[in-house]
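Residues and backbone
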Amino acid sequence: MAEAKSNGAFDLELKRLEKRVDELLNTVQQIKEENRALRQRQETLAAEKTSLLNRSEQVRTRVEAMIGRLKAMEHSA
């Protein structure tokens, strides 16, 4: 009789551990998906930053050229 109770307790503990392992596996999967999404977002933001830096440099160059032309016009007038 005592053996049946200990087997029952063992089975109960085994079920509890199995449930916990399943929960942990689900959590790991969720974290992996979140990590993948964050890495993709980081890559997108890095590409956007590069694009904005390039555009900013182009605008800066154009503004400097305009300033140079305005100064040249000022000196020739």
